[in-house]
Amino acid sequence: MGGICDIGIVGLAVMGQNLALNIARKGFNVAVFNRTASRTQDFVKERVKDETIFPAYEVEEFLSLLAPPRRVMLMVKAGQPVDDFIQLFAPHLSSGDLIMDGGNSYYRDTDRRTKEAEDKGFFYLGVGISGGEYGALHGPSIMPGGHREGYLMVKDILEKAAAQAEDGPCCTYLGPGSAGHFVKMVHNGIEYAFMQSIAECYHLLREVEELPAPSIGQIFEEWNKSEDLNSYLVEITAQVLQYIDPDTGKPLVDLILDQAEQKGTGKWASQVALDLGIPTPTINQSVIARNLSSFKEERKRISALFPREEAEKSDALSLHLEKALFLSELAAFCEGFHMLQEASSEFSYNLNLSEVARIWKGGCILQARLLNRIQEALKEEPGLLFTSPLFLEKVKDCLPSLRQACTLALRGGIPVPALSASLSYFDSWKREWLPANLTQAQRDFFGAHTYRRIDREGVFHTIWQKEEKE
Ligand code: NBP
């Protein structure tokens, strides 16, 4: 005997609550369960109106509400709580039931859990969900990976709950194992990079132009109207910068402590890129920038030890920054898709990168008009995104502005780690020759690591130091 619910959601913090409401509003029956019963009670009392949401307070009761084969989505804190719930449910599940993890789990955990579920006869999906609490309620970008049979069991539910872009739902089956959580991790890495580049543009406009936050907000508002920069992050930046604190009458952003926090997905993206050997400098520098920002007391102390450089005025700064920000955003996407391309072959995800771009076009933090062009470019171009005919001329046109913005910042002592990393990224790719020959010579000198030559085949080692004569 089974119940009447199409899906069960476990974990009723912001994401679980909003996803449950979203799915129920699409016409599905949703069972809900939370470790702490009071959270379930509050949710039902305060937020559930006409939605077909059925609360349960015991595991057996929760699972009995589900129609077979049972479909359970975990929306709990990533890490041990996910394993704990799987262990709790496993004895009560039947072969062919499906467990999904909609949290920000580390992709290797998802691989392990997929295998464990397989051994027990269940289907498993690691589902990346982006869009925060608003997206979870109104339609997020959903990145599922794992057992394809499992996806077919929830395709209808997930695709209806997802954001709807002009060419379809922002949800598609991505690949086996941890494909979904891997794509979500890279999404977050790109998100860190885009946010940091935006923050650096704000920094330059604030220090060089000495503009107040609301005026900078207006510049971002204008940028958001353009084909290149129209995006969720630029849009909310414009709103944030123009928001006035009702208590003080000052721009609220000016009253916020300059220490950026993080939950770790950007760091994972950076670490995994290093493991894969894929250059992702803009993403890496953005993670580092958040780390460095956390040392507020030290920065305060050290800032008093140095004279402040004078930043030069520049008439066309905002015009240069508009192009610089576009290139830095493009660099972050290039780095992310390069990483996905490598992971796809390394982990046999068989990712369709153009489809990844498509499902990021709505619902998620990365949604941007630029993704239309990226989606097109990735249909044809398996190589580096910026070398696509859709971007190459644009990159050539914007590079002088990125260089100008970085030069101004470096001269004025204004840190631009993400913008300058993007600049070096492009500058490095467009150099046939790089000074790695010297690095190889040094490695051979101190470690006999050998080197290859440009004028002969083979591997060589040199005794670089003349032996001292006795
Ligand atoms: P949280 O990540 O804050 O987790 C809260 C939920 O986890 C509650 O249901 C809590 O139950 C449960 N939980 C905890 Br904490 N420890 C537990 C344990 N040891 N055993 C069982 N349950 C436990 O919730 P969230 O912000 O809604 O996010 C849910 C997932 O979605 C996370 O993985 C998050 O990274 C991911 N995500 C969040 C966002 C966002 O914008 N917040 C966006 C995208 C993805 P309790 O009520 O009994 O304490």
How would you sum up this structure, described in words?
- It is a single chain.
- The chain is of the alpha/beta class and 470 residues long.
- It folds into 3 domains: 7-177, NAD(P)-binding Rossmann-like Domain (Rossmann fold, 3-Layer(aba) Sandwich), CATH 3.40.50.720; 184-429, N-(1-d-carboxylethyl)-l-norvaline Dehydrogenase, domain 2, CATH 1.10.1040.10; 435-470, 6-Phosphogluconate Dehydrogenase, domain 3 (Single alpha-helices involved in coiled-coils or other helix-helix interfaces, Up-down Bundle).
- Helix content is 53%, strand content 8%.
- The chain has 19 helices and 9 strands.
- It has helices at residues 14-25, 37-46, 59-64, 80-89, 107-120, 132-138, 148-161, 179-207, 213-223, 232-242, 265-276, 281-293, 296-303, 317-346, 353-359, 370-380, 392-411, 417-429, 436-447; strands spanning 7-10, 30-33, 53-55, 71-74, 98-101, 123-130, 141-146, 164-165, 168-169.
- Strands 3-2-1-4-5-6-7 form a 7-stranded mixed β-sheet, sandwiched between helices.
- Helix 5 links the parallel strand 5 and strand 6.
- Helix 15 runs antiparallel to helix 16 (370-380).
- The radius of gyration is 25 Å and the shape is globular.
- The N and C termini lie far apart (92 Å).
- The model has no long low-confidence stretch (mean pLDDT 96).
- Residues 11-16, 34-36, 39, 75-78, 81, 84, 103-104, 129-130, 132-133 line the site of nicotinamide 8-bromo-adenine dinucleotide phosphate (NBP).
- Nicotinamide 8-bromo-adenine dinucleotide phosphate binds at residues 11-16, 34-36, 39, 75-78, 81, 84, 103-104, 129-130, 132-133.
